[in-house]
Amino acid sequence: MASESKLSHTAAIILQSIDAGHAYGFSVMEETGLPSGTVYPALRRLERDGLIRSQWESEKIAETDQRPLRKYYRITRAGKATLDASQKRYPLLARLFPLHAEEKA
Amino acid sequence: MLRTLHIAILRNAALLVPALERGEWLAEWKAELCYVNHDAMAFCLGSFRDALWLRRKSFSARRMFSLDSPLRCVLLLAGLAILVLALALPSRKLWLPSWSLPGKEHFVLGFAWMYLLSLLVLLTLNPLGLGEYPANRYAPRLIVRLRRWVFLSVKIVLLVPIPLFVCVALVSMFPPAPWIILFGWIAGFRWALADQRRRCPVCLHLLSKPVEIGSPVQTILGRYGTELICTRGHGLLYVPGAPTSWCSTQRWQYLDPTWSSLLP
Q1: Which residues from chain A sit within 8 angstroms of residue B13, using beta carbons?
Q2: Using 50, 70 and 90 to split pLDDT, how confident is the model at A104?
């Protein structure tokens, strides 16, 4: 619960973005409009707090798509609980990513 | 050309990242850079903030002041000596002129006498022996074994000015207190010996993972003491719980190189 109360608005947006399926750093940047110097340290902080976890994708997938390897971030159960608490605190958060809301519905 | 510049920026930022995380950190930023189609320079400059955050995360006072590494130990002692010297500098007028006075020999002799006195007091309080380090076929070369003596000497040399300058720094506030120097040296030398006894004679790092062996009631018929290990696999140190006729002091045992693969 301590991490729930400490989540800043920016961190909540990034967490919401990851939950919406924007799973690697640059896609989070594009979606949120936040600069790299904000997004990546926030990702580290969220991972340190156990709200997200990262994993490099397999080389085969990257080779097939002919692009560099991506480090994907996934929201954890604790992250989900924190996000739910943050949505109550920041009511407009859930509306930031309407596509995700539709998917959920 | 620009791509090379961007990679160079990332590589420079990577220098701020702790060594263990550097490879993965750089791989992630380089991979992400491939997706950036506008304002790549701003993207790359953001990496410094990320690298600084990782550096701050890795920093902790406990690690900074840990004496585990011999280099860090020497640097901390040197830093402390410089710090007390800086504190003593405002009072330099009180002690620097003594070098130009005709009685400066007495000044030097006084300190030499106090130095010897502290060694004598130390000898009565504490055994000076560092333990037994019998060489076996896994023992390193003589030059490597000599390093521990060099390390001990450096520690002792660095410890000499610390109580001296503390005393000088306090002269402006209190009357001269030579006992600070005496007790400072005794405590410092005692620490230097105790620290030396807990170090691996090969890599000079502090030994860890203490394991208690036996129990006090088995002092006569069995082993009772503590065993410490060098996490780099250089050897084991057995410290007897109570000195006996067959094991009066701590004893080091060099291990064969296969041990290093068993340790994390």
Answers
A1: none
A2: very low
Q: Does residue A69 belong to the interface with chain B, where contact is any CB pair within 8 Å? A: yes
Residues 6+ away with beta carbon under 8 Å from B244: B219, B220
Q: A35 vs B28: CB contact, 8 Å cut-off?
A: no
Query: CB–CB of B31 and A40 under 8 A?
Result: no
CA distance B204 to B220: 32
3-state secondary structure of A3: helix
Q: Residue B263 has what pLDDT?
A: 63
Q: How many helices (H) and strands (E) does chain B have?
A: 11, 4
pTM of the entire predicted model = 0.54
Spatial distance between the Cα atoms of B183 and B114, rounded to a whole number of angstroms: 10
Contact B29, B8 (CB under 8 A): no
Q: Is B74 exposed, middle or buried (0-12, 13-18, 19+ CB in 10 A)?
A: middle
Smallest Cα distance from A50 to chain B, Å: 15
B196 has a chain A CB within 8 A of its CB: no
**Residue B45 in contact with partner chain A when CB distance is under 8 A:** yes
Q: How many helices (H) and strands (E) does chain A have?
A: 7, 2
CB contact under 8 A, B28 and A25: yes
State residue A105's pLDDT score: 42
Q: Please judge whether A35 and B42 are an interchain contact, meaning their C-beta atoms are less than 8 angstroms apart.
A: yes
Is the pLDDT score of B70 beyond 70?
Answer: yes
For the segment B16-59, what is each residue's pLDDT rounded down to a tens digit? 998 888 999 999 999 999 988 888 899 999 999 999 999 888 77
Chain B positions touching A41 (Cβ under 8 A) are 49-50, 53
In this prediction the ipTM stands at 0.85
Q: B13: nearest CA in chain A?
A: A37
Cα–Cα distance, B228 to B207 (Å, whole number): 6
